[in-house]
Backbone:
């Protein structure tokens, strides 16, 4: 069974990396493609980007129940088909309605894929191997996005629309490759968590049951702050602060984003060895402190006047510190969601957490861009320093609620008493023939 689980997990990870590679092709160029290449204007491009998020918010509340009732595999396949159709549609569409419809299909498909893949990883891992499995997924995702973005940048040409069509076609193929990979996976019949096999009856009150779990509720609150204060600021508030306050060149901003990816790729497995045997709540609290330093560095980069090299170095270090924090979260947060969930609600818990992430990613850029756009630079940095400190406080508070096996599975297993060897009792004999033992 262990060998089969390992083979299934490798297939899932490979398909996920390839789809991330295809996604990296298009994400950085979607706005330019819609607004300029298709000549549909900035407002249509904004609507397209918004529809990606809106579609995710619509389908995620329904995805968890579908996963728990039908299993993660068919849901993942449906998501990959929808995402592939949306990607190809974006490449072929030349009118606003078709572009918007394609964006909805793409956003919905990606949103469905995420919790379905997370649930498949849970099913194909154990409590002790889950942190490494999710860390590997995060590493391959970032590597695929980074390489995809790099190769995509070499292939696109704003004066040749067919180059963008080629990119979206490649993205569609990569989603189909992911669908084929997961469709060929043989999942274990029983998820590797401490509960019974999923049943339709238990999934009916999924939201009520999950909201009654105060540990999961607090983890969702913590997750919202995490994604709001980091991922939600990368392409909006922090980028705007970097160009308007720190006044770094756009090329330097690209270097900063590359530093983030490089920090994740370089540090992921080193960090994993350091944190996977430690209490998850303490690791998340440490992330809050790392990100506090990162936001202070960002704030200082806007105060260093007349020393542009120092200001740029401070801002690049901000992105690198975020990457180190992200590499600490990947083996911590997603496995904790899985370990909090009963087997009958794994999909519901994963979908709910994905919904919280999507809400933070929708609200974070809006708040960041609004504050920086209105010149509230100091308030912006202060708000995010407070958020980072809040991450540490919320993590420690959550740690007080977690059971030892949830906060540190390795220590909990090590603390279990070793099974005692049975000592055979006296053997009764009848004559010279020993009785059956």
Residues:
């Amino acid at each position: 069974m262990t060998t089969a689980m390992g083979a299934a997990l490798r297939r899932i990870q490979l398909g996920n990396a390839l789809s991330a590679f295809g996604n990296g092709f298009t994400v950085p160029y979607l706005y330019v493609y819609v607004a300029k290449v298709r000549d549909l204007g900035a407002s249509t491009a904004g609507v397209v980007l918004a529809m990606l998020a809106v579609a995710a918010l619509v389908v995620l509340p329904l995805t968890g129940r579908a996963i728990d009732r039908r299993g993660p595999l068919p849901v993942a396949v449906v998501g990959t088909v929808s995402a592939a159709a949306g990607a190809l549609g974006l490449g072929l569409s030349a009118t606003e309605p078709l572009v918007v419809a394609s964006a909805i299909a793409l956003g919905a498909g990606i949103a469905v894929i995420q919790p379905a893949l997370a649930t498949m990883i849970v099913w194909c891992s154990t409590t002790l191997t889950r942190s490494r499995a999710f860390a590997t997924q995060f590493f391959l995702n970032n590597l695929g996005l980074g390489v995809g973005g790099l190769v995509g940048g070499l292939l696109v040409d704003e004066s040749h629309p067919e180059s963008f069509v080629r990119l979206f076609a490649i993205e569609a193929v990569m989603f189909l490759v992911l669908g084929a990979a997961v469709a060929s996976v043989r999942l274990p019949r029983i998820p590797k968590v401490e509960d019974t096999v999923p049943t339709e009856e238990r999934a009916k009150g999924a939201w009520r049951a999950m909201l009654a779990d105060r540990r999961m509720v607090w983890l969702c609150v913590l997750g919202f702050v995490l994604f709001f204060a980091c991922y939600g600021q990368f392409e909006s508030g922090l980028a705007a602060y970097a160009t308007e306050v720190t006044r770094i060149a756009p090329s330097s901003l690209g270097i900063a984003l590359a530093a983030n990816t490089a920090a994740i790729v370089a540090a992921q497995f080193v960090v994993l060895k350091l944190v996977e045997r430690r209490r998850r709540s303490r690791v998340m609290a440490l992330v809050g402190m790392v990100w506090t330093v990162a936001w202070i560095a960002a704030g200082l980069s806007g105060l260093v006047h007349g020393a542009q090299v120092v200001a740029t170095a401070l801002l690049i270090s901000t992105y690198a510190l975020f990457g180190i924090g992200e590499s600490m979260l990947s083996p911590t947060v997603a496995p904790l969601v899985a370990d909090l969930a009963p087997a009958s609600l794994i999909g519901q818990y994963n979908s709910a957490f994905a919904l919280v992430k999507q809400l933070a990613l929708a609200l974070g850029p809006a708040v960041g861009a609004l504050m920086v756009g209105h010149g509230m630079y100091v308030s912006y940095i202060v708000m995010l320093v407070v958020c980072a400190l809040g991450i540490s406080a919320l993590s420690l508070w959550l740690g007080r609620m977690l059971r030892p096996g949830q906060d540190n599975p390795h220590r909990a297993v090590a603390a279990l008493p070793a099974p005692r060897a049975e000592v055979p009792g006296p053997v009764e004999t009848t004559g010279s023939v020993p009785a059956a033992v």
Remarks:
- The longest strand covers residues 429-430.
